[in-house]
Amino acid sequence: MKITIGTRVTCVLHYFGEGIVYDAAGVPAPATVRELAGGAVTTGGNARYSVVFANGAVARDVSEAVILGVQWSIREGVADAEEIAAALANAACVKASKASAEEMKAVRIAAEVAALKADPTHSKLVQGEDFYSGKLAAKNIRQELKAAFPGMKFSVTKRHYGSVSVKWTDGPTVDQVDAITGKYKSGYYDPHEDLHSNKVGPWHMVFGGVDYLNTGRDYSSAHLQRAIDAVFEKNGDLDGIEKPTPETYGRGYVVVPGSNYCLAELVLMEARKLGPQ
Which of 6, 155, 221, 260 gets the most CB atoms within 10 Å of its CB? Predict the structure, then answer.
C-alpha cells in the first residue's frame, strides 16, 4: 500500500491515535516490507514519513516498515493541504501549551522545595541531592521512625543501589510505618508502558528518594498469642476448634465454620491489625 502526503493513519499506541502524513522522504517500496517473528517485527521499505496526530503529537522520520506494521493502520481518504496545515497549527499550539504548563510546574516545584528546606518541622532530617539510590532516604527514614516510635528497633537496610528494606518485629502496623516511609519512594509501576518508572517530587529533591522500598513486619510469640486470643474472643469458641499456640497455629488447614478463611489466616489478619500494647 503506497503512502503519500495526506495519507490518514492510526497508531494504536495510547499517546498517538489518528494522524495524517505531512512529509515524506525516499522512494516508497511497500512490496519489500516483511513481517518477522509472527508480526512482532517488520522490516523492509525505503521511505520515511512524518505524521501529525489529532491530539497534537508529532512523529518524525517514521520508517515505511513501521507504518505498515501491526501497530499502525491506513485509513480511507487523503487530507488536503488545508487540513494538514490546520493539524500542524494545532500541534504547535499543543506544544506551546505544554511548554507553558511545564514552566508553571517547574515554578511550583521550586517553591515546594524551598518551603521544605526551610520548614523547621524537618530540621532533624538531612538534606541533599539523592533522588534514586536510597542512601539519603535510608538515613532520613531511620530518623523519622526513631522519632515516631521511640524505643522501637527497626532494621533499615540499603541492599543495593535504589533499594531499601525496612524490617521490624511487633510494634506499629505496616500501614503506620508506610505512612512515614512511603513519601521516600520515587519508583513506581507504569501500567500504560508495562515497566518500572520514576517520578521525582519535591520531597525526594530535598530529603532523598529510593526506587524500590519494601516494608516487612515480623511477629513474636507474644504478639501471635495476642492475635490468637483476639480471634477466639471475637468468634466465641469457634465451634469447638482447639485453641492453638503461637507455635502450632499454622499447622494444617483448620476450617473455620461460617468464615471464608482458615484459622491460620484469621490469626495472621488479626496480627497485622494489632499495634503496640
Answer: 6
Total structural domains in the chain?
Answer: 3
Are residues 179 and 264 located together in one domain of the fold? no
- Predicted confidence at residue 266, as pLDDT, reads 94
Residues spanned by the domain of 244: 221-273
Give me the pLDDT at residue 168, please. 98
Helix (H, G, I), strand (E, B) or coil at 64: helix
The secondary element (H helix, E strand) that includes residue 24 is strand 17-25
Residues in CB range of 166: below 8 A, 6 or more apart: 141, 145, 154, 155, 156, 157, 177, 181, 213, 214, 215, 216
Question: 240-273 as b/e, with b when 16 or more CB fall inside 10 Å?
Answer: eeeebebeebbeeebebeeeeeebbebbbebbee
Q: Specify whether the CB–CB gap between 185 and 213 falls below 8 A.
A: yes
The position carrying cell 521525582 is: 200
Residue type present at position 162: G
Parts of the chain with a pLDDT under 50: none
* 43-47 long-range contacts, CB within 8 A, separation 24+: 47/3
Domain shared by 184 and 242, yes or no: no
The β-bridge relationship of strands 41-43 and 187-190 is unpaired
pLDDT of residue 49: 96
